[in-house]
Design brief:
seven-stranded mixed sheet; alpha/beta; eight-stranded mixed sheet; single chain; 28 helices
């Protein structure tokens, strides 16, 4: 909405203040500046406010607004007088305004930095968090306009408004004057205000998902009159799942006298239903979707699942149609899954919702699954179904124009029915927020991610995302830092998800291996070593092992204090006729589950080769009134037991106590008793089974790394206090302002060598001096000033840091050697004007490393470390961490590269001073975190000696800081 010329003669309408927000109850609303065109809306809004709320706002009975009031409240200059409105369906539900004042409380202009603020919320919308969201946005507007404090007068009886101010987390002062509470809020964001904001964001976004995933009623808009078709399929799946709420079929083409379809009430519109509808599944052609959305919005539908295609995946016209769909839905307070979605599933017994096109739905379980691709969603659902895995919730978001993986991370964070979150992502709409949410969620439950479109360099059709310049390897490293389990394929995601959902986390990397195949045990052993685990020598139970032998061996391994996890390997038995026997898979599964349930809580995985029924039986969690037992009996004498083929077990005859029926879905619980002690009524849980040793071990290795991250995250790192004494933050800020100037180039500017050295010096980073050497005499003079021995090197961009091309001469001991080296350099590589030679005093011998920090507009500031030289660059051996980095991040950074042993005494060399290196990393992190104008820093090379380090080269680039949407007020993204 644009203002008239009278509205703002000096300041344009600030459309960047417009924002969609999620309210406390999960509904959405729009916040925007008030304009002169809003007079009628303001009057209508005020008429719907109770007399009590009016009294609280004006401290006196104020039944209606005068013409003067309306003019005052709709005419703003967007600097000293600002008004914001919250709208739903285009109508006001709340307003806030500030007026800049001076020290005496009279109207003022800049440089006065205080403003009086006042709110008014319709009574019907009070309690939805409207005022809290407005406070965040009006505070951000005020800071932008140079206002640092808000003053507010509140009647003592207005407890709701006092609570809004009190709970915001800002530094505030309170006094009682003239019968009113006088509040002063310092608008500078604090750690507490940011925490409050993010906690409210989590609750609101989780609630918005809950409204979609657990509706009390569902309408399928576009239910076909004939069998088949998308809408009719969804309706059939809803009924087959046993949805516990009310279901309606909607199609404008239904005959007026048609009362039902498939036993469900049939209506020609949402409005005809006459009862509240929580969720609408829209399955009509794209050109008819706006009509359906209007029908839903005007009759109180809370959320939409749009299955219709024909949006951003179809090009520019479709992208605009998608944006309009989101705008339209949000204007009614609705959120959207889709468009081009596959649907959603909620297996909670209280809901039993299958509002998707999935032909088969996995059983209830503890895994939450989010995908952006319908095809991948189908494959994952099918794979989980075949492996007996259970899901809590499933969402396929399609173009994810509104609801995204971030929203479901907010929901799963505190969802008691979800223990593991699996996400297939093809793009990250808000990488900073994803990393923050993933870190918080991973602290309480595993988050496993597969990222598609990693190497194509293009965004999948239909996905609008911010541009990111960081390579895929960096994205993967940052996910790891946040505790995300990053895997490469959907198969690996399912493998890891099954283990994490059904097994406890391992306490360490020590793995016991046991089974009836020596060869399979050795393959498992090798796989463990390849994944960085510490396997014990495999225990061969021989091909004659019975299920009871497996049970005893597993119980013994679980009781071993030197074991953190167990991998069981099993191959089929061979009968006396030479044919493979697979009927004992259920018996073996019962034995393994019993041993796991009665032993200490350690993860168990099974690797099997074509044992019929074993994987299915292991996947079925069963509660037992009587424990399955295998009673050994005499086996018929074989002609020659040793004549059985290697790795083909011959099963002795066994009698079993039948296990109870599967399907009770009880979580595995284990006692702390030893292998000889058996609880009276153990609970048997699922044990994941894998057809290959590599897959089981890879899943176990991910669990080990995740468990280690969880233990470390429980005690977060910190930034050492000693840095504060050697850092001149204010001086650096002043110098940066001077270097950028009053009207900085948006593209930024690189600093000269001297400018970079000065700025870095304010953060305690000393760069070894270099002197230009445009000719041999200048080189000799520079060496005399610095002192021999010296280094002579080129600084031309194409030769910088390329010692392999001959652009560096080290340990030049005297003038003659320096002149000779200068001549060789220019003869080999070109004229001095091209090479730009410099002379630098030699640093103590050590390991050459590289420290970099860059600010990516999508992901934020990233700190990187690696060894200097072509091999590290060629192999991509660089580690990354998000800024701000802690002492633990710095320590992990230098230890996580593959070449790290070089720093710690590899092949008999002396270990270098890694403590000094960690301190340097922390200083660089502080620099870019304190000053977002520093968009890149490169220290290369950094020579780390046995004591201390030397920075030999540095480059710094400054630019106006990119917008930090993650620190601003809550708002939904506009893709």
């Amino acid at each position: 909405m644009q203002p008239t010329p009278e509205q703002s003669p000096h300041h344009a309408y600030p459309d960047h203040w417009e924002a969609d927000v999620v309210l406390r109850d999960g509904g959405t609303a729009r916040i925007r500046p008030i304009t002169t065109d809003d007079a009628e809306r303001l009057v209508s809004f005020y008429e719907q406010v109770s007399d009590e709320s009016k009294y609280y706002r004006f401290f006196a009975p104020y039944p209606r607004l005068s013409a003067k009031d309306v003019h005052r409240f709709t005419h703003h200059d967007y600097v000293d007088r600002v008004g914001l409105a919250v709208t739903i369906g285009g109508e006001f539900i709340a307003t806030v305004r500030y007026d800049r004042i001076d020290a005496t409380g009279r109207p003022a202009s800049a440089p006065a930095d205080e403003a009086e603020v006042a709110f008014l919320v319709q009574d019907a919308h009070q309690g939805r968090g409207v005022a809290s969201a407005l406070l965040e946005h009006i505070a951000a507007v005020a800071r932008e306009r140079g206002i640092r404090r808000f003053a507010a007068e509140v009647l003592p009886a207005n407890n709701k408004m006092i609570k809004v101010f009190r709970d915001a987390g800002y530094t505030q002062q309170r006094s009682f004057e003239d019968g009113a509470v006088h509040l002063t809020l310092d608008l500078e964001p604090t750690a507490e205000s940011l925490a409050v904001q993010r906690a409210r964001e989590q609750r609101a976004e989780a609630r918005s998902v809950q409204r979609l995933i657990a509706p009390g009623s569902v309408a399928v808009v576009g239910t076909g009159r004939n069998p088949g078709g998308v809408g009719r399929t969804v309706l059939r799946n809803l009924l087959a799942a046993g949805f516990t709420g009310r279901t309606y079929a909607v199609n404008s083409a239904f005959a007026a006298d048609q009362a039902t379809i498939d036993g469900v009430p049939a209506h020609r519109s949402i409005g005809e239903i006459g009862e509240p509808v929580d969720l609408a599944v829209v399955a009509v052609p794209a050109d008819r979707v706006p009509e359906a959305v209007t029908d839903c919005g005007e009759h109180g539908v809370q959320g939409l699942v749009v299955l219709s295609a024909g949006y951003a995946e179809w090009g520019a016209e479709g992208r605009e149609r998608q944006r309009e769909l989101v705008r339209q839905a949000r204007s009614y307070g609705m959120r959207i899954i889709g468009p081009n979605a596959f649907g959603l599933i909620n297996n909670s017994d209280a809901v039993r919702l299958n509002a998707s096109l999935a032909p088969e739905s996995p059983a209830p379980g503890r895994i939450g699954l989010f995908t952006q691709s319908g095809a991948i969603g189908i494959a994952l659902l099918s794979g989980l179904y075949r492996r007996g895995a259970g899901l809590s919730t499933f969402i396929s978001a399609g173009n994810r124009a509104d609801i995204s993986g971030n929203d479901f991370l907010q929901y799963w964070y505190e969802d008691p029915d979800t223990d593991v979150a699996l996400l297939y992502l093809e793009s990250l709409g808000n990488p900073r927020k994803f990393t923050r949410l993933a870190r918080r969620t991973a602290a309480v439950k595993p988050v496993v991610v597969v990222k598609g479109a990693r190497h194509s360099g293009s965004t999948p059709p239909g996905h609008a995302v911010p541009v990111s310049r960081i390579p895929e390897a960096t994205v993967s490293a940052l996910m790891r830092q946040a505790g995300v389990i990053r895997v490469d394929t959907v198969t690996e995601m399912v493998d890891a998800g099954l283990l994490l959902a059904d097994q406890p986390l391992p306490e360490g990397p020590r793995v016991a291996i046991l089974g009836n195949s020596e060869s399979l045990g050795l393959l498992t052993y090798d796989a463990c070593l390849a994944e960085g685990l510490r396997p014990r020598p495999p225990r061969d139970l021989t091909t004659a092992a019975t299920p009871q032998d497996f049970r005893d061996a597993l119980a013994e391994a679980l009781a071993d204090r030197n074991c953190d996890a167990v991998v069981v390997t099993a191959i089929p038995w061979v009968g006396e006729n030479g044919e493979a026997e697979s009927g004992d898979g259920e018996v073996l599964a019962a034995a393994l589950r019993t041993a796991a349930a009665t032993g200490p809580a350690k993860p168990v995985a099974v690797v099997h080769v074509e044992i019929g029924g074993l994987a299915e039986a292991l996947a079925a969690a069963t509660s037992t009134a009587a424990v399955p037992r295998v009673v050994r009996a005499s086996a018929p004498a074989a002609p020659d037991a040793s004549a059985a083929p290697a790795d083909r077990a011959v099963p002795p005859t066994a009698q079993t106590v039948p296990p109870t029926a599967p399907g009770d879905q009880l979580t595995q619980q284990r006692s702390d008793t030893g292998p000889g002690d058996t609880p009276a009524v153990p609970t048997l849980g699922r044990i994941p089974a894998y057809p290959a040793a590599e897959r089981a071990v890879r899943a176990l290795a991910e669990a080990v790394k995740y468990a280690q991250w969880r233990r470390q995250a429980a005690v977060p790192g910190k930034v050492p206090e000693f840095l504060d004494d050697t850092i001149d933050e204010a001086g650096a800020a002043a110098r940066i302002d001077a270097l950028l100037g009053p009207d900085p180039d948006p593209r930024g500017r690189p600093l000269s060598h001297d400018e970079a050295c000065e700025l870095l010096g304010r953060y305690g980073i000393t760069v070894r001096p270099t002197l230009p050497a445009p000719d041999p005499d200048a080189a000799v003079a520079a060496a005399a000033r610095l002192g021999y021995p010296v280094a002579l090197k080129t600084t031309a961009p194409h030769l910088r840091h390329r010692a392999d091309l001959g652009g560096v001469r080290l340990d030049v001991a005297n003038e003659a050697a320096l002149r000779r080296a200068y001549g060789e350099l220019t003869d080999l590589l070109g004229k001095p004007t091209e090479l730009q030679p410099v002379v630098q005093s030699m640093a103590p011998r050590g390991v050459d490393t590289v420290v970099r920090a860059t600010i990516d507009p999508a992901a934020g500031a990233v700190l990187s470390f690696g060894l200097a030289g072509a091999p590290s660059e060629l192999l991509g051996d660089t580690a990354h961490r998000l800024v701000p980095a802690t002492d633990r991040d710095a320590a992990e950074l230098i230890r996580s590269i593959r070449a790290a042993p070089v720093l710690f005494g590899w092949r008999g060399s002396a270990p270098v001073d890694t403590a000094a290196l960690e301190e340097l990393l922390l200083r660089v992190s502080r620099l870019v975190d304190d000053h977002p104008e520093v968009v890149s820093v490169a220290l290369e090379p950094v020579v780390v000696a046995t004591q201390g380090l030397t920075v030999l080269g540095a480059s710094v680039r400054l630019a106006p800081p990119p917008a930090r949407t993650d620190l601003g007020p809550r708002r939904l993204p506009n893709y």
